[in-house]
Amino acid sequence: MSTPNLVIPSPREITTEPRRSDKVFRGVVTGGGLSSLLILGLIAVFLGYRGFEVLRQEGFGFIMNSDWSITTDDAGNVVESHFGLAAMLVGTILCSLVAVVIAVPISIFSALFLNFYSPNWLKKLLIAIIDMMAAFPSILFGIWGFLVLMPSVEYWAKLIHRYLGFIPIFDMQVPVFTRSPFVAGVVLAIMIIPIITSVSREVFAQAPLDRIQAAYALGATRWAMIKAVVIPYGRSGVIGGAMLGLGRAMGETVAVFTVLNIVFQVNWHMLLGAGGNVASLIILKFGDASPYEIKALMAAGLVLFLLTLVVNASANFIVKRTGKSGR
Amino acid sequence: MTTSHESEKATMDTAVKPSSLAQVANSQAAKTPSASAEGTGLETRGIHAWFGKHHALADINLNFAAGTVTALIGPSGCGKSTFIRTMNRMHEFIPGAAMAGEVLLDGKDVYAAGTDVTKIRLKIGMVFQKPNPFPSMTIGENVLSGLKLAQLKVDNKDDLLQECLERAGLWSEVKDRLGAHGGSLSGGQQQRLCIARSLAVRPKVLLMDEPCSALDPGSTLRIEDTIRHLSETMTIVIVTHNMQQAARVSDYTAFFLSDGGPGQMIEVAPTSEIFSRPKDERTENYVTGRFG
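Predict the joint structure of the above. Result:
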């Protein structure tokens, strides 16, 4: 087939000269896209710069120890200081995990209800309410949690302690049930339900109609159809939504601050009224902190920032790993 | 066999003479209707269907005798698909959809109050236009998925799996890779997988909504073979846009038409008659390719 004398050309360079309007638009869009990256980078640089001194002084002790003390002389010079975030980090993780464990099942059920069971008028109403919940000021959640929710959560906590106390994290030595990481976690759960619900609802709504019909045509009940089609399809999206919720729970400040009793001691017992939270620590200390302590708080902010980043990155990883099956 | 030859010619030129289609239809030994099919077939009485205010289908009376293949033909939008979806109660999934009339399976109205709709759909299976296997399941799991979905118990799943795949004409092609995912098959194989899947719950009736319209001619012929084999044991209703297909596989043909208003059933007769000496002029115009 091939002719011996045929000269094979090298591939041509394919170009196009975009119009001016396209160039302008491209510039605007690129600017918008990169600005979030820029802002994020500047925040990290700012926190790192301000917290550098403390981080260098404390080293790994900053995330391994739990002391938080600063002694100044009469002139305001720092005599001695110990900064450690261990208790706060443990508390942050504990509160957020409680929140996610409570919020994810509720969110999945409400997303399924909205998509597959709810009558249309109720669906519209509930979606509006859930969206409103997402926009609700967190201080109000905090106050409501403190005044209204705490007494009942205390009761649940006592029940959990009585029947599940043999599990180490539900154990407690001192019967102080108020202002515990568990209570804070319940408040956080209520705050992250809207976001997990709307993400789950969106992915469930995209479950392909032809597969849904195939399941029904085989005599599936609604629940059997959901199990066979909707959940496999939406699994990765729900995990993504849960991670988004986890990220929000870890960063939440005011509501947790209102509810949680902050103690500088690592505490894995979630029912005990002594917890920690990085964001709440910052708000607790920020008001009357000396310039040097401010640096420590900036370093704490950097640690929280990195923790959130790691959670989001692992969320992406998980979503990609589980994404293919069921699609 | 001139069957495939006829079809090639016909796809190139839709305006075929009625006689050639009638030949194809006659080469099928048309089954005599077991007219005493009372209690063993499917019957519709005065079916109307609406989508919101749109009246899509008016007064369809058809009797599908047990063990026959009935083709529903007619131009797009004449309500054929809507009609078969009223029979296994898939119509009601569309928001705003409504229907009137009765669908009698073994003499019992499938819309009667207190009916468990999932049981109806077990008896009246359906194959869709686009192959839709469950992608998260293997080939074997797909075939048996109906059992799981309807919570049915079966003693020997392997036998059932093989039987369904054999009846759907797919066994020899997939028997060595039952653990592969359903999406790894070709379109025609996926459609036969879907047929096998609907057979596993042992329906009495199989509704097929343009099952070959997304497939190549070779796959189409294989599915038509499958339909002929299946019709020995069950009642089949097939919607098709392909008149050659109707002529090849069906014992009876019903012609649907909408003249701007709701879709109506113009004429039903043994397939050879519809294609050789239709009673209604509109049927003749359609089957000879003068419109539609």
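The interface with chain B takes residues 120, 208, 210-211, 213-221, 224-225, 228-229, 232-233, 325-327 of chain A (CB under 8 Å).
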